[in-house]
Design a protein that fits this description.
It is built from three helices and 26 strands. The protein is mostly beta strands and 353 residues long.
Length: 353
Amino acid sequence: MKKVLNTPVLYVVMALLGFTFTSCNDNNDALELPIDNSIIKENVIITSNYELEAFLGLGVTEIHGSLSISGFPAEEIKGFEQLTYIKYDLKITANDNLKSMKGFENLTTIGGDLGFWDNDLLTSIESFENLSSIGGDLTIKKNNSLASLKGLQGLESITGSLSVLHNNSLENLEGLDNLSSVNRSLYIGDFSYKPGNTQLKSLKGLENLTSVGNNFVIANNENLISTESLKNLTSVKHLYIWHNLNINSIEGLENLSSVDGILNISGNDNLTSFKGVENIVSIGEKLLIGGNDKLTSLNDFESLTTVGEDVIITYNDVLQDYCFLKGVNIGSEIDISNNAYNPTLSQIQNDCP
């Protein structure tokens, strides 16, 4: 049986489904819907209620393109309750009134990127509780009211990168509890000198994380206290713990025996020791330690034997003890300068027991 609609929003639906329409009788307004209108084969862009109305009642289950919801005026989104699959990206951006993602409870697979950014009133993403696969990056950025990442528990790995940036109500990372690996980079804050996540106090939620394929950056989170939730981390290429003004402990890194690339622990004003690095044996590229105002000793590097390239230790105001370097094979240059005491490598070799 054929269904006939005369509403203008039908044009939106037909365009998305890739159909053209012609008159089949004297009534030029009579348009046929395709038999299966639950699968959309084009990109979908929603910026208004008018565009959203095209989906109401269709029961869309799959989008074989990307879905973008940007500048949408309402507090919640309806029309995607049956959606299970998006072939490419899902971007939820710059929706000033959006408070909830209710309506995406059945979504299980996103083939490309998932992004939430610049949604000032968004408080919850719990509706993504059945999402189990993301083929690209996950970006959660500048959502000033988002207090929790609960809803992402179905994610065990991320093919691309994970970025959690400038979310000023987020206190921890609960919701990522089942995440074990990030194939590319993981950013909790960034190097921009802008506040990373101003209320983030702990990395709780990352207890099951074991590996990060490229950069693992923990930066500019002014209220972060420790890294103790990283107790299962065993593999990382580059690790940066940078400019977290109130961090006082990097315990939690005890299962890390090597850093394949760069280890940079710098600009952490309240960090007094490096307890947590005791089991690191090798650093593939550079070791950089700078601007840690209260750091007095580096003896927690007791197991370190090899640094593939440079060792740079600068601007640590009270640092005087470098004896760990006596047993380290350094592949390139060593720079110890602008600290409380700045010995040469020869002095370290002669003076340390």
